[in-house]
Structure to design on (409 residues):
């Protein structure tokens, strides 16, 4: 008689790990989540971001879409502009929300983490647990931690990010480093009330000369989320030794149309976090026996499609659905099926996001002018249709839905 998967070990309490764990808890699979960070508040850190329709469709499959949307702001427009204030394209998002039955929203990362953490349960999350190694045999997987403790389960899920420790063991501690994209995202949330300054419901995406971009949207009536994206060449003129980050960015964007300058000036210095953007080219296995990678550990991508979190959620939901129906004896085949179901979609997202990012590295006025002309000609039609064709691909709908009819432990 085949036995069901009884216990899953999840390394990493980020979006991918918590989504996977929430889906498994929903099906009555015992789960332990191990997180290297030591304080609960650290799990709720991070700025704002976009969750597109596909992420909410995936969250609906584990019953969490309404809880996440409750603390989010629905986006109705995605507007592309130049650094001279000219509109390049404007996507009306309501038609896609109506068509697929799920919104696109902006929210705090901490809001999503809170919903996922509550779905998993604090008692299932062990903080301060830094993985040092793992081994597997015919009956299960054993993981070892820095404090000398161990844990054992039927399956190990590596959801520990771009520089995954689970992945490192899988690769025998040798693989090329992550691929650097050539730019930095300076991310922040600022207090800036005023609909006349930043209207609710529009995600603004500004493309400039000199390797600069700027993204912003309203999170609530008082707060605005923003990203200043600077290429390495542009960053050479941003002197944070001679001035504050806020002042240096203000100088870099001083010629940009309002409210860019006002957004930067309103932001607390400590709220501005520079993040070097990396991904990994598609390729390499995600599974080995009873061990599987998910989220950024498997398919990290740049921020240009705003799909890093969305793809982590999709992968977590799909993996939970498959594991909930798997037998412990057939886990390697189940995990291989997960990889096969997700690899192509994640690779498409990674490649497309990388290519969009290359457009932002253009510096000269002539080339930037050509890029802007291309965006005006194609982004309201071809680019929009291709983006939504990729985002609302039906591959997710053909994978198992995590059941809710098993008693959660």
């Amino acid at each position: 008689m085949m036995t069901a998967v009884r216990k899953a070990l999840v390394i990493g309490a980020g979006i991918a790990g918590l989504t996977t764990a929430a889906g498994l808890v929903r099906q009555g699979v015992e789960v332990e989540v191990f997180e290297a960070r030591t304080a609960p508040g650290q799990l709720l850190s991070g700025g704002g971001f976009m969750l597109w329709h596909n992420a909410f469709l995936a969250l609906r499959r584990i019953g969490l879409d309404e809880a996440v949307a409750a603390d989010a702001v629905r986006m109705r427009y995605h507007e592309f502009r130049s650094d001279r204030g000219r509109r390049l394209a404007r996507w009306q998002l309501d038609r896609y929300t109506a068509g697929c039955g799920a919104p696109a929203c902006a929210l705090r990362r901490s809001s999503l983490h809170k919903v996922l953490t509550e779905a998993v349960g604090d008692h299932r999350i062990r903080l301060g647990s830094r993985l040092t190694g793992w081994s597997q045999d015919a009956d299960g997987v054993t993981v070892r931690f820095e404090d000398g403790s161990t844990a054992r389960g039927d399956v190990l899920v590596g959801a520990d990010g771009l520089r995954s420790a689970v992945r490192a063991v899988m690769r025998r501690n040798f693989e090329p480093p992550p691929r650097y994209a050539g730019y930095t995202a300076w991310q922040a949330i600022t207090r800036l009330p005023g609909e006349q300054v930043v209207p609710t419901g529009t995600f603004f995406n500004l493309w400039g000369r000199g390797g600069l971009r700027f993204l912003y949207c309203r999170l609530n009536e008082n707060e605005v989320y923003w990203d200043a994206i600077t290429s390495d060449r542009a960053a050479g003129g941003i002197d944070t030794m001679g001035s504050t980050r806020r002042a240096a960015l203000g100088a870099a964007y001083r010629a940009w149309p309002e409210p860019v300058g006002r957004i930067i000036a309103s932001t607390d210095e400590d709220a501005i976090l520079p993040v070097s953007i990396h991904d990994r080219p598609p390729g390499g296995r995600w599974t080995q026996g009873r061990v599987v990678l998910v989220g950024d550990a498997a398919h990290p991508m740049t921020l240009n499609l705003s799909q890093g979190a969305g793809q982590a959620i999709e992968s977590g939901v799909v993996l939970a659905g498959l594991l909930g129906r798997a037998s412990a004896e057939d886990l390697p085949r189940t995990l291989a099926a997960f990889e096969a179901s997700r690899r192509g979609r994640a690779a498409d997202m990674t490649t497309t996001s990388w290519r969009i990012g290359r457009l932002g590295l253009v510096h000269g006025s002539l080339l930037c002018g050509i890029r802007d002309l291309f965006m005006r000609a194609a982004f309201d039609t071809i680019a929009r249709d291709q983006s939504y064709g990729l985002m609302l691909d039906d591959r997710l709908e053909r994978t198992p839905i995590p059941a809710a009819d098993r008693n959660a432990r």
Q: What stands out?
A: The CA atoms of residues 379 and 386 lie 10 Å apart. The chain has one domain: 7-177+279-398. The domain at 7-177+279-398 is CATH 3.50.50.60 (FAD/NAD(P)-binding domain). The first helix runs from residue 15 to 26.
